[in-house]
Design goal:
The complex is a heterodimer of chains A (350) and B (603).
Chain A: H1 14-23, H2 27-39, H3 44-64, H4 70-91, E1 99-104, H5 112-123, E2 127-130, H6 137-146, E3 151-155, H7 162-174, E4 179-182, H8 191-196, E5 199-200, H9 204-212, H10 214-218, H11 232-238, H12 240-254, H13 263-286, H14 289-305, H15 310-323, H16 328-345
Parallel strand pairs in A: 1-2, 1-3, 3-4, 4-5
Helix pairs in contact in A: 1-2, 2-4, 3-4, 3-5, 4-5, 5-9, 6-7, 11-13, 12-13, 12-15, 13-14, 13-16, 14-16, 15-16
Chain B: H1 2-13, H2 20-26, H3 35-45, H4 70-74, E1 80-84, E2 90-93, H5 95-100, E3 123-126, E4 129-137, E5 143-149, H6 151-177, H7 183-194, E6 201-206, E7 212-219, E8 227-234, H8 240-246, H9 255-263, E9 275-282, E10 290-297, H10 304-341, E11 352-359, E12 370-376, E13 382-389, H11 393-410, H12 417-435, E14 441-450, E15 456-463, E16 469-471, E17 477-479, E18 496-502, E19 507-511, H13 513-516, E20 519-520, E21 526-527, H14 529-537, H15 545-560, E22 568-575, H16 595-600
Antiparallel strand pairs in B: 1-2, 1-5, 3-4, 4-5, 6-7, 6-10, 7-8, 9-10, 11-22, 12-13, 13-14, 14-15, 15-18, 16-17, 16-19, 19-22, 20-21
The chains are: A alpha/beta (350), B alpha+beta (603).
């Protein structure tokens, strides 16, 4: 760390050093890198957004490419959290504005992005309560009953959780607290947030700007969910178990090798089959086939990087398509995703 | 034209015609000919063939028979008739038209009457009556004006619409204020809802507490959302009308109040001369919870119906505020009690990195029947424990509190885990026998001591709880052979004891049955089981203890997939050892040592 920081930015050498700390799960070294930047005069917000956030994104990439195990990813995330705590402690801003509650949706464990939002809000003078990962809706609501909040910021990283996210948003609305949401779960451009009728922020700074503008927070067009009247979403959920069983039986039929799976291989196959159903359900919920196709493309990429052929996903989609032939929207979404898998079939895995 | 409307409506909606269009179109207004209307309605609804145009019979056909005198018949139309010739000169004015348009005189130009608003299809006010006119061309370039008095039907339709608007408003109010809110939210919601339906500016003053009154105000803005602000006033500065309202009286003379309020800057955008105001008390439990001042321009004077609406709104607002206060008070009590029963994070101990996770079965409640904790011993070691009491919810949580208090006291006299657990057993047995409530617990209780050369020794006693797991440096997971009987059931239980050595980086994991008995999987009824837990932590030897505990919580919750679950508790102890630097409090301002220098010392 001999190079002086460029104006407001992160010097070039710091980045690989910091990633090494994450790789080695060395909490104290990582904290020292961040604190060193602060001491050299880099603003806390820049350390959070230009060092911690992109490093965490890189951690996700490495997991997706199967370079890092889940355990390594978890350890690195834990270290990032400690770094955030250290940066927040170093800056130690004094709250001058109202209370903002930040939380992850129920079932959502990607706590670092909302944690960064929480700290950026704190740096901008808000009194922030961070409720952490996977916050159950009743817990959040009872918190809002006890402590008046200017706004609630909710994070959702996986579109699969959108139906739950919607319930949570509604719960906050019922206690008359404005909600702003963020995270990749709402689409890169926030289009599924608009579908659910909720204010969306693309990142921590824009979340902070939105929260500062109460009238903008309250001025949200209503949800567009009239398509739910066809009951495809609820009917699909009811048939979840049946669909997974059927897909598994069909997989064993087609590929005898899968019959010799270890219990944990079987578990991950079952959970992948379940994710396909859950993402399809979420796509039906917001009526956007692109949600499902994006997920299937991603899944194919993940599976091929772990040696599972793309054709497996394709035939599972076919199986679901056969079972769900009475579901016009689901049939359409499955068809679109299948064509995408076929198109990707010729591409060699990375 | 009018008939046509009725036909269409009756065929669409059956016999009952209840729309506003019907009220406006079928009522004669002046009540002169109500019988024909009833007869006509019967005829149409009986399914008589509907003629699409009200064409008159051909005049030429039966002239020599008893032909009606059409001019006589026409006199009794509800519409007034004015017939003009090709030049626009009035040739005929029916008696009804004479009454409605007295300026129109036969033999003069119609334009000369000076009724500017008279146009085909126009509805206009003339001599205080609401008139609707239409122009029909006749033969030889003549034309006939049909003029109808719709004053009363319009009034009734307006009244109906206004009534509907009031109901819709109160429905929205009920929906918004029907949920228990935080008291401050409820107050802000009350003023926000009052604008613009009830007021241009609405001010809510809460009943003063210790001589100070909190207020909220909403003012109409160009935007659709009103501007809300709030503050505090000394109770002695409140205007008399507000004080009266706080005593539960609805003040009647309000002119003085408007002036006072405008002068004091309470009503932005309104002037004293052009404003009117109402003050209503918001009913509370015994005395009013507060008063609502609504003000708007005099051109929207508060009539009887408006005042009724303000009162109905005030009743709902008062209920919402009262509920909010009650709820807040109870939540505060519950919160305080809960806080004393939530597991306390383990105390920092040399050589140990703690990791915990806790997820009670009832999410709204932050407490449950699982517990964990630690106490430091004078010799530098620590007692640690994790367990689960019988039952769920508040009662179970209260029992965990008793149990933790027992341990808090007992660890001072006995620090050998097996003997300490026996002492605890006797104490619990005595309490539960005295109270006649057969409560019991399962738990693992241990003592951890750090070695100077790194690593930890854990001596653990088992009270019928799931045996802990040890995550070795190789990434393998070993179950700890630990058995024993339930705590608090029999006087001299069999208690197992085991000693485990952890090298630096190795972790011991204690967990409750909420983890292994979590039901999920394909059908949502399969238990998570120890196998899956072992698989989930296997290979995680480099994870810090908090990350490992969270990982166990996460895989369990993923397995549950939003299903119901039992209380979940996890306690992880990781041996830090000399290879890792001693923990530094991360919130403290770091010393002046440069980061570059320190990085060089990194192993």
């Amino acid at each position: 760390m001999t190079a002086a920081p460029t104006a407001g930015g992160i010097p070039a050498g710091v980045w690989p050093a910091y990633l090494d700390c994450l790789q080695d799960a060395d909490e104290y070294a990582a904290v020292e890198v961040a604190v060193g930047l602060l001491e050299a005069g880099v603003p806390a917000e820049r350390v959070l957004l230009d060092l911690v956030a992109p490093a965490q994104a890189e951690v996700g990439e490495r997991w997706a490419r199967n370079e890092w195990s889940v355990a390594q990813e978890h350890a690195a995330t834990h270290i990032s959290e400690r770094v955030v705590a250290a940066v927040a402690g170093y800056a130690n801003p004094r709250p001058t504005r109202g209370r903002v509650v930040v939380a992850c949706m129920d079932g959502e464990w990607h706590a670092l992005p909302p944690r960064l939002v929480a700290e950026v809000l704190r740096l901008r003078g808000w009194q922030v309560t961070f409720l952490g990962a996977s916050v159950p809706a009743p817990h959040l609501v009872s918190y809002l009953h006890r402590h008046d909040a200017h706004a609630v910021a909710l994070a959702c990283a996986l579109p699969m959780r959108l139906p739950h996210a919607h319930r949570m948003i509604e719960a906050c609305r019922r206690v008359d607290v404005p909600v702003v949401v963020g995270g990749r779960g709402f689409g890169v451009d926030g289009r599924w947030a608009r579908r659910l009728g909720v204010a969306w922020a693309s990142g921590a700074p824009s979340a902070a700007d939105l929260i500062a503008d109460e009238r903008a927070l309250r001025r949200v067009p209503p949800a567009e969910l009239s398509h739910l009247a066809d009951d495809e979403y609820t009917s699909l959920l009811k048939r979840r178990g049946e669909l997974i069983d059927g897909a598994l039986a069909e997989l064993r039929e087609r590929d005898p090798g899968t019959r010799d799976y270890t219990p944990s291989q079987l578990d991950s196959t079952v959970s992948d089959l379940g994710y396909i159903v859950d993402f399809l359900a979420a796509a039906l919920y917001v009526d956007d086939g692109a949600l499902f196709t994006e997920f299937v493309d991603w899944l194919v990429e993940i599976l091929t990087s772990r040696g599972v052929p793309a054709a497996t996903v394709g035939s599972t989609l076919e199986h679901y398509g056969r079972v769900l032939r009475d579901f016009p929207r689901a049939t359409r979404f499955l068809g679109a995703a299948r064509s995408s898998v076929v198109a990707a079939g010729g591409v060699r895995p990375r | 034209m009018r008939r046509l409307v009725v036909v269409r409506l009756s065929t669409r909606s059956g016999a009952q015609l209840v729309t506003a269009a019907d009220v406006r179109d079928s009522d004669p207004g002046d009540g002169r000919i109500s019988a024909p209307r009833a007869a006509r309605a019967t005829a149409w609804t009986a399914g008589a063939p509907a003629r699409q145009t009200p064409s008159l019979p051909a005049l030429a056909a039966d002239r020599e028979h008893a032909a009606p005198d059409w001019s006589e018949v026409v006199e009794h139309f509800r519409e007034g008739l004015v017939v003009c010739d090709a030049r626009g000169v009035v040739r005929h004015v029916s008696p009804v038209a004479e009454r409605l348009l007295p300026e129109v005189a036969p033999g003069e130009l119609l334009a000369a009457a000076g009724i500017a608003a008279l146009a085909d299809g126009a509805e206009f006010t003339h001599h205080g009556r609401r008139l609707r006119a239409r122009r029909v061309p006749l033969s030889a370039a003549r034309c006939c004006w049909y003029v109808e008095d719709v004053t009363e039907s319009v009034t009734r339709a307006d009244a109906l619409l206004a009534e509907r608007a009031r109901s819709a408003f109160l429905a929205v109010v009920g929906e918004k204020l029907g949920n228990p809110l935080h008291p401050d939210r409820a107050a802000a919601a009350v003023v926000r809802l009052a604008v613009p339906t009830l007021a241009e500016v609405a001010v809510l003053v809460l009943a003063p507490r210790s001589g100070r009154a909190r207020w909220w105000r909403a003012a109409r803005s160009d935007d659709d959302a009103p501007v809300v602000d709030s503050g505090v006033l000394p109770a002695v500065d409140l205007p008399a009308a507000i004080v009266e309202g706080l005593d539960g009286v609805e003040p009647h003379t309000l002119d003085w109040l408007v002036e006072q309020a405008v002068e004091a800057g309470w009503l932005p955008g309104l002037t004293a001369a052009e404003s009117c105001a109402r003050v209503v008390p918001l009913p509370g439990r015994d005395a009013p919870a507060g008063v609502l001042l609504t003000a708007r321009r005099v051109d929207r004077w508060y009539d009887e119906a408006d005042v009724e609406l303000v009162r109905a709104f005030a009743a709902r607002a008062g209920a919402a505020l009262t509920t909010a206060l009650l709820y807040r008070d109870q939540a505060e009590v519950a919160d305080t009690l809960q806080a004393s029963l939530v597991p306390v994070e383990p105390a920092e101990a040399t050589g140990v990195q703690w990791g915990t996770a806790y997820r009670p079965a009832q999410a709204g409640l932050r407490i449950g029947g699982d517990f964990y904790g630690s106490h430091r011993l004078v010799d530098g070691g620590s007692v640690f424990f994790l367990g689960d009491v019988s039952g769920k919810g508040v009662e179970a949580a209260v029992f965990t509190g008793q149990l933790r208090q027992c341990l808090q006291a007992l660890h001072r006299v006995e620090s050998q885990p097996g003997r300490l657990l026996k002492l605890l057993n006797d104490a619990l047995l005595e309490t539960s026998q005295a109270q006649g409530q057969g409560r019991f617990a399962t738990m693992v209780l241990g003592v951890v001591r750090a070695h100077r050369e790194g690593g930890l020794t854990l001596t653990m006693a088992g009270g019928g709880h799931l045996p802990p797991l040890v995550l070795r440096g190789s990434g393998e997971v070993e179950p700890v052979p630990l058995s024993g009987m339930l705590v608090g059931v029999v006087p001299d239980p069999r208690i197992g004891e085991v000693t485990v050595r952890l090298e630096p980086g190795e972790t011991c994991l204690l967990y409750s049955d909420g983890v292994t008995e979590a039901r999920g999987g394909r059908r949502g009824n399969e238990q998570f089981g120890t196998e899956r837990l072992v698989h989930a932590v296997g290979g995680c030897q480099r994870m810090p203890a908090p990350a490992l505990a969270e990982r166990v919580e996460q895989v369990t919750c993923d397995w549950l997939a939003h299903g119901d679950h039992d209380d979940i508790a996890v306690l992880a102890l990781r041996a830090t050892g000399p290879v890792e630097r001693t923990p530094r409090h991360l919130h403290a301002v770091p010393d002046a040592t440069g980061a570059a220098e320190l990085r060089g010392t990194r192993p």
